[in-house]
Structure formats: structure tokens, C-alpha cells
Amino acid sequence: MRERLKRLLKKSPQIYSFVAKIYSFGALKLRYLQERLLGTRLAEREWATRHLRSGNDWNNTKHAGDDHEWVKSYWDSRNHSHRPFLLEHISKFAPVSSILEIGCNCGPNLYLLAKKFPDADIVGIDINPEAVRKGNEFSVQEGIKNVRLLVGKADELEQFKDKSFDIVFTDAVLIYIGPDKIKEVINGMLRITRKALILFEWHSFGCASHPLGVYVGHWMRDYTAFLKEFVPEETVHATKMPEKLWADKYWQKYGGIVEVDLENQKCKTREWHINKKVLIIANLYHASPRIPGLVKYLPEFGWEGILLTVPIGENPESRFGPPNDFKTRYRVIETQAYQPNVDIGEQAQRRFKLTSKKAYRYVRPFLRILYRFYSEMVHYPDNGRNWKTSAIKAADKFLETEKVNAIISSSSPVTCHIIAKELKNKHSLPWVADLRDLWTQNHAYPYSILRRMIERRLELKTLKHADALVTTSLLWSEELKELHKISEVYSITNGFDPERLNEQPINLTSKFTITYTGQIYTGKQNPSKLLAALRDLIDDSIIEQEDVEVRFYGPPDELLAGEIEKYRLSSIVQKYGVVPRQIAFRKQKESQLLLVFNWEGPSEKGVYTLKVFEYLASRRPILATGGFGNDVIEALLKETRAGVYCRTVGDIKSALKVLYLEYKQNGKTTYTGDIEKINKYSYREMARQFAAVLDKSIPAQ
Questions:
Q1: Mind listing the pLDDT tens digit for each residue in 556-601?
Q2: Tell me: the pLDDT tens digits for 185-214?
Q3: DSSP 178-230
Q4: What are the residue ranges spanned by the domains of the chain?
Q5: Same fold: 77-267 with 274-341+383-492
């Protein structure tokens, strides 16, 4: 019937042309409506199942009727005229040791790259499992040994570590990614790229466009404007594809290559902005993520941070936070290590095989008391004392060859300040002492009154040489001013990486999920208030038990386990153990509610927990419980509108009731955070404030 109608209409070319235009316009509008309603999921489903439909996408009849016609036609497209143009732009960044293609199909581009770069590790991911399977077969048949294809999606790149590949590229992939996922995809690709991100896509080239894209049969964008949100404008360059390379009017109009030169970004940042250097003395086992964030963003304000620390190893991200490539991206001086803090209770549990929870609970505190007594006698001022000699020696050697404008030391351990004091006096350098926790004024000072008195004399004797003191809350800065009788004391809070704010939101959990990530400090934080509130709400039939899941990601905690049993919540409260930082971030972003336990002590109102800043970047509602009220956490949540503070069990019940009702009505809890206010707590803002203190401390140039 359809063919008969076409033949009839063709008898009148004018009528046929008019009807064809109406049909095309209607089809385009219908497709656009589908794209807006279903988002990228529509294209994902079509490409994941494309091999199940007949035909091919390259007008190739060679394999007509073959069960693998579609995949084989893609493999034959290795000779398509656009591919040399793409390879030419990738080759500009040689030498390369690793390349990743997002949306590789069966790997025609990767075959050509393997021939050009036989020693490189070449990887491709694609959403279609049949294309991946056949592509690996084709590579074996062709004798290609440095190519491997994996099943994967453009917005799920967690399997790859930061800066895993020299080059990451796409070829006609982002034209299928809608506004709902494009930011997440770009963020993921930039995270794993070292040298350059190369996009062979539809670029506006002067045509009217929206930052997130205009739908013209596929998604077309002004990438030079869009990418400014992620990288400096100077690093992005677009090149139009010669029209002869692709016999398609849309590719001829919009087709082009967009390059993001990340090496250029690094060079330009240093060339244009950095004119001063600061030696930062810190132990990254304790100073993360504050100090890595400072080192990353100081260059934007004219300072390069060179870090003096203990050896950080080859996989630091899994242990204490900095990216695994931290040493390759920034200047790090590693010196002889000292023995880090050990958990004497865990050591005893292994040594004496304390399998009984009751025995473990009684023995562990006793052993901790013994260890604390030993530390009080031997570890003065802390167990970093043995690091001092090697650190000063390494710093002296470095300062002999390079001009440094200032020093920052960050505690704990406080040995960092003692090292900085000696370097300041020896080399006549301005010194800023950063106290992430107070020294002898510390709310959790672990030693006796006598030890505190002796150590306070050391604190006063040491820090009187500093040009400025920095701490992490306004309350603490007032305490430092009172003790040290100086005016140059600044409050610079911890923060979060602002790049995380650009990440695309992910799907929320279907359950009313409450998530806590990190360690719970016994005696300082109290999870039982939340558990008691949940138990009451469930018993009163206000919350349905099957709707709720409470998730704890962090070290094993026997006291928490006991509280869960006490309140009969084992079926809904899960302990997942320690997970990598990126996984923790993902779990935060998918949660209905994020949990903070305030410090339980009237003298601890100036304590920010580090996780509250991570939570700000996750853009999910925060529930802070416990404490005594009128503290920095309560003030932060009010200022940013990122969550609610509840001091008592009754307060927690009231808040949970409201949040749960919203979840039942809408299927989710609503986030109301003020992004402008939240940005005040980013690492970029933290670095700006540190740079201002440094600029004020150095002599006029």
C-alpha cells in the first residue's frame, strides 16, 4: 500500500515533493518529542539491539542476508573517507601510549590506529554486545594484538581510573547523547584523559545552537561554548570536515572535529598565571583531601604548590584520597616515611584471635589506654618526630636549587610546623601555619593534662615564628587568636572539588535510601539517635519498613552493629565496608538522603566534618543529627539550604516524617541547595583565600 501511494504521488513531482517535506517534518518532530520524553535511553536501546534488526548503516549490499550483516558492514567501513581525517588529528598528539574510543562499534577506527601505533594500548567500548564480540574476533583474524573491545556506555566510565588514556575520542557518538546525559559524558571522558579529548561530531560552526544541543535529526552543539564549562576556552579548537569526506548533507553542514588539548591547558596555566612558588609541608595520609585540593587550584591564583610529604606509593587514591596520578600532575618531594597511626585494637584482635564481640569490646578499650600511655611517653610531640630530619634535609636540598616565595605547613602531625619553623629561620621565608585541627586546644586532645601543659609551651614557642595562622572554622580562629595573641589568624574551611558540581545527576534509588559514607568516631558521634527515630516511626506505622534502606560505607564498627541489633533494624540497615572514593561519591548522588553525625560535645561546636563538604557537591538533601545545636554544621546547612539539622530524637522523627511523605508522594526527595552559596566552600575558593594570605605574607615585590 505504501509503495503504491509513493508511485501514485511521483506522477506529480510537485505534490510528491510537498508531501515528502510534510512527512519529514512530522517524523522529525515526532522523533524530537520522543527524545525529550525518553532522553538518551531511546538511542541507547536502539543501538544496544541494532544487530537484531535487518539491514546495515553503510549502504553496503555485500553482506545482504548474512546474520551479521550490520556488524560486517561496519567492519568494511574501515576505508570510509572520514577516518583518515580523524586519524590525522589523533596523530598530532603523538607519541601516544594509550587510546580509548567511546562508541567504537566493532572497531574500524581502532584497526587503523593499531596499524599506526603498534605499541600503544588501544581500547574501545560500545553499548552493543554483538558488535564488541565480533570486533574482537575480527581483530584476532587480522592479527591485531594491541586492541581490545569492551561492553560499556559513554556515561558509565567508572571502570577506568583517572587519566588512564593519552587520547579519548568519539566518532558520531555524541550526536545520540541528549541534554539529559551530555554533561556526565563529557565529565567522565575528561576525567580519564591525559593529553587530548577529540570529538568527531556535529558542531554548530556559526549556526544557532543551545549549549546543551539543538535537535536536527541528531544532536548538534556549539562545543566551543559548551566546553567552556569544563576547560579553559583556549584549549578548545574546532575544525570543519571537508564536505567531500561524507556524502551526507548534515555531515557536510555540521561535521567537524573538536579538540580539547589538555596538555596545552596545563602549559598555559603555568605560563600565564604562576609567578610564585610555595613549599607545602604535609603528610598526605592525614592532610587529604584538603591539601591535594589546595595544590590543584592554587595555580589559578598565581601560586604553584610543591608538596613535601612522606612516600605516597603507587595507589594513593585507595588509601587516603589523592588521585593515583597526583605525582605525575603536580610536583611532589617524598621523604623517608615514619610509622603512621595504628589501630591497636584491631592489631590485638588479630594477635589474640578475639572472635567474641563481647571480648573484643572489653579488651580493645583497655589496649587503647595502654597504647595511649606509651604514646604519651614516646611520641612527643607526635609519631612524626622521626620524619623531621629527613624532611628538613630534602627541603634544604630543594631550596638550594629553586626560588620559593613562601612555606605552608599543615597539621596534623604537628611535626610539620616544627619543620617549617626551622626552614623559615634558616632560609628567611614567610611561613603560614595551617591547623586543620587545633594543637593543644584540640577538642579530642588524647593525652593527660600534664602532657598538654608541656606541649602548649612547645606550641607557643613554635607558632610565634609563623607570619600567619590558618584554621578551618571561625570559632577555632578566635581560640587561636586568644592563645597566641596575634591578629593574623584566618578561617579557611575545608571544601570539595568544584568539578563535581558539573557532574550530571544520576538516577536516584527506588527506596527511601539514607546513606552515610566514612568513619564513625566512637564516643564523639552518636548514630543511635537516628536508629531510635527510625524504630519509633516504623513501630507507629508512619514509615513502611520495606521502603527504607540505611547504608553505611566505612570501616567495620562493632558498636554500630550492636546498636543496629538493639533497635531491631538489621533488615533495613546495611554495612557495606570501605569503598573507593569515586564509588562513595556515586552512592551519595543516588541517595534520597545523606547523613551527618554531629560531634557530641558542647566544646566541639567549631568542628566541621569533612564529609559534609563532599555531600554539598553531591547535591542531595543532608540530615545532620546530634550535637548541642548552634554549631558550624547547623549554620552551614541554613546558609546553603542543603539540608536540615536535628538535635534530638524527636527532631529527627519530625524531619524524617516530612521527607518520607515527600518521597511517597513524588518518588524522591527534593534538593533545594543554593549553588551560589555552596560554591563558597569549593577547593577553588579555599585556594583563593590561601593565595590572599600568602600574598599578604610575602614582602612587597
A1: 888 888 999 999 999 999 999 888 877 888 899 999 999 999 887 7
A2: 999 999 999 999 999 999 988 776 666 778
A3: -TTTHHHHHHHHHHTEEEEEEEEEEB-TTS---TT-EESSSEEB-HHHHGGGT
A4: 2-38, 77-267, 274-341+383-492, 498-681
A5: yes
